Each structure stands twice: as C-alpha cells, then as structure tokens.
Recover the amino acids of this structure.
C-alpha cells in the first residue's frame, strides 16, 4: 500500500496512474481526514480535474458538496453520473446509481462519503460495498472517509470523545487501498473554517462547536488519524520486507468467544486491530459445550451469538464453531493446530468460587496456554492508545 500525508510532498496524478496500469481489478485510493472540513472532497475533485487533463476518463459517481460553494465550483467541467431516486416510506431518497456507473464504465470514479448506509431497496447495504463492486468490475476508485468511521476504532473514539459513530466501515476495506492520503490540518485552522461558515451553514455552527467540534475531540481524532496512517505504513513496509526475505508467515490472532459475552463487539474490534498491527489474519472460535447446546440456551443468547458471529465476519475474521465438553482443551488444540500465536479472551464472569478453586476458563488458560501470548481484555475505560 502506498501511503502519503498531505504535509509531505503531494502525490501527483501520475502516481495514481502507475497503480492503475497494474492488473485488471480496479485500484483504490482513499483520502482520510479526522473531521468534516479538512478538504477531502476538494482534493478528490482537484485530482479528478488533473487526471481529466491527462486524458483519463473520470466521472463523479457520488460527490457531496454539503452546500459549500467553493467545493461546488470545482464540479464544473466534470461528468457527474445522475443519482438514483429510491422511494422509502413515502420519501424519495437519492443514492449513488451503482448500475449506471457500472454501465458507464469509466477509468476512474470519484466516490464521496464511503461509510454511508444506503437506503433499504438498494443493491448493497453500505456504500463501501458499492465501491467493492466497482473495483471488481475493473473501475478505479478515488474515495474519502474520516478516521472515526473505521469499525475497530469505534469503542476507542466513544470513550475518548463521548461521540458514538453509527456508520462504520471494516478495517479490511482500508487495508485494500493501494494509496492512502492523510489530510492533516491544525485544529485551530479547522475551527476557524467552521466559524467562518466554510463547513456548515451559520445556524449549525454553534451546535457543532458544543458537540463534535470541541477542541479536545478534534485533537483526539487528529492524533488517531495520524497514528492510523502511520501504522498502516509500518504494516505495509513490514509486509514488503517479509516478502523480500521470504520470512516465515506470522502467527494468527484468535479471539475466544462465549455464547453471550459482555462487550462482545469491543472484544472483536480488539482482535481486528491486533491482527492489523501484526499484519496477519485472525479467527473467532466459539466452543459449544453440552450445557450451551441450542436446546439449553435461551433464544436471546442464541440471537446474540449469531449477531456476534456476523460482526466477526464483517470485521474480516474466520469464524469457527467447535463442540466439546472441555472448552479450554478445545481452544488450545485449535490454537496449536492452526498456527495461532496470540489468544484474546474477555475478563472472566464466572462465579468467584470457581475462580478461587482455579477452575475458571481464564485461569486454566493462563496455566496451560504454553507457547501462546494470552491477552485478557478488561474493557475498563483506558487512555487513548
């Protein structure tokens, strides 16, 4: 993955064209920011014009100006694919017309607001899935999103900013990008842009300053954005070095899942981020004991279990369901036979008397998990890291 920051030398359109020349599958370039107003759409449109001047067939598949006159002015001269109108509960909603873009088949499509959730009735539930369809069809995509929309950062951002982000994309989507450009901007400059009406209409400025656009929130998100791109660069460099040296494939990350653990989504996000940092794949393993067979656990627990498994798949994990009387033996046998190096488990919720007797799953894993790095997640509030 080629990664650049806006504070370094600006990537030229030729850089992306070199990537476009490779392979039949479309190439993906992402502009990442830490908040609205840092200039993602502006930069995408600038690049679209530069590519067009070089004779590249570029269209705006979905461009959001958010009422910003300066951004809207940049659309002039670019071909924009008309949006598709979908009726939902008596209201006509406009979405990116995926079928029209596929039929138009440009060399490069500009797609804004990638974390967006499509209206029911669309082919795909999320816009990032539309982007994957475009890439699979051989169409190159230049897109944009903010760092807080990465799924694995969801809990971290909620803890440190008090803001819960509802629309997310899985980290594996970012990992598929061929180029990532981090658009950095001083917090003070962004706040000045907000106050001068360059981000939201005047009537929304005060609300934004009191909520999402608080100085500390922006500083936290800016740090996360810079760190995420830096870690992606480290992963990319490590992968290249390992490939050149034909190094041994790193061990896998494994998350041990119970039928209905508290904070299951946070546990899964931790596994996703660890696998990303180690540049390896990961799996989620659930051991169904006789006491947890479908006829013994209630329907609510089964519903939570299925939802957690679906969330794990969405985050890119392999989901494995085992049946065994002893969950510890099953987990360790699987780990040793499937090249697992790191085992993640949530803090024990078992009765105190089992823990006192040393018979809890966690205590047995601590004693018996030879050759594995065991990570016990407490989910207690922690500092940004």
């Amino acid at each position: 993955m080629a990664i650049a920051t806006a504070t370094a030398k600006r990537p030229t359109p030729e850089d992306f064209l070199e990537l476009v020349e490779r392979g039949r599958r479309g190439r993906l370039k992402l502009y990442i920011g830490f908040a609205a107003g840092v200039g993602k759409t502006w930069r995408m449109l600038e690049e679209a014009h530069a590519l067009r001047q070089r004779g590249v067939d570029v269209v705006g598949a979905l461009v959001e100006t958010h009422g910003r006159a300066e951004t809207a002015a940049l659309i002039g001269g670019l071909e924009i694919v008309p949006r598709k109108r979908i009726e939902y509960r008596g209201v006509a909603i406009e979405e990116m017309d995926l079928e029209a873009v596929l039929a138009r088949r440009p060399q490069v499509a500009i797609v804004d607001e990638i974390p967006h959730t499509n209206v029911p009735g669309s082919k795909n539930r999320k816009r990032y899935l539309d982007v994957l369809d475009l890439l699979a069809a051989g169409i190159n995509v230049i897109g944009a999103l903010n760092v807080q929309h990465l799924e694995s950062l969801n809990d971290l951002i909620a803890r440190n900013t008090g803001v819960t982000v509802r629309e997310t994309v899985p980290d594996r989507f970012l990992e598929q990008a061929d180029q990532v450009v981090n658009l950095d901007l001083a917090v003070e400059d962004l706040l000045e842009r907000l106050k001068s009406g360059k981000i939201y209409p005047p009537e929304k400025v005060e609300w934004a300053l009191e909520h999402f656009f608080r100085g500390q929130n922006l500083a936290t998100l800016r740090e996360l954005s810079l760190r995420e791109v830096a870690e992606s660069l480290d992963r990319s460099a490590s992968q290249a070095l390992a490939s050149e040296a034909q190094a041994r494939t790193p061990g896998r990350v494994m998350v041990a899942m119970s039928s209905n653990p508290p904070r299951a989504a946070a546990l899964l996000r931790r596994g996703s981020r660890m696998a990303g940092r180690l540049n390896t794949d990961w799996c989620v393993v659930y051991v169904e004991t006789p006491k947890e067979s479908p006829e013994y656990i209630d329907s609510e627990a089964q519903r939570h279990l299925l939802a957690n498994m679906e969330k794990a798949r969405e985050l890119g994990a392999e989901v494995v369901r085992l049946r065994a009387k002893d969950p510890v033996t099953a987990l360790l046998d699987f780990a040793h036979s499937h090249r697992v190096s790191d085992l993640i488990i949530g803090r024990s919720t078992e009765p105190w008397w089992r823990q006192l007797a040393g018979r809890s799953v966690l205590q047995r894993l601590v004693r018996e998990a030879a050759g594995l790095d065991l990570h016990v997640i407490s989910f207690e509030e922690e500092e940004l890291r």
Observations:
- The longest helix spans residues 215-245.
- The two ends are 23 Å apart (CA to CA).
- The chain has two domains: 2-242, 251-377.
- The first strand starts at residue 2 and ends at 5.
